[in-house]
TrEMBL record:
This is Rieske 2Fe-2S domain-containing protein. The keyword Metal-binding applies. Its cofactor is [2Fe-2S] cluster. It comes from Labrys neptuniae. Belongs to the bacterial ring-hydroxylating dioxygenase ferredoxin component family.
Amino acid sequence: MSGDPNLKWVKVATLDELWEGDFLDAKVDGEEVLLLHRRGGRIVCFQGMCPHQEILLADGAIDFEKGTITCSAHEWEFDMEDGRGRNPLGCKLFQYQVKLEGEFIMVGVPTDGRLRRLRHSVEEDA
Ligand code: FES
């Protein structure tokens, strides 16, 4: 995974900045991302803007118990396991690969130059 030539790994935060049960938004390579440190220690990263009308998802409701990210604008709800839309179905947040290097949380940015935030439909799953 770390040797994937199609990814550029970017340091986004340290473990000290993202405790378990917490989230943060950041800009990575020009695009907003949302990092979540899930219960049990797994860290996931999604596009930070809602695919509906590009509202910052970090301003919405992040519910670690339910495992959902809900946009503040029109309440589209996404599963924090894989970014799939729970309501409505048929949409999906782009999910970045994440790895740790010591204390650093690294996010894998695809190097193909396409905007990540526009890859939100399930059909485009790749
Ligand atoms: S902008 Fe997010 S639900 Fe409409």
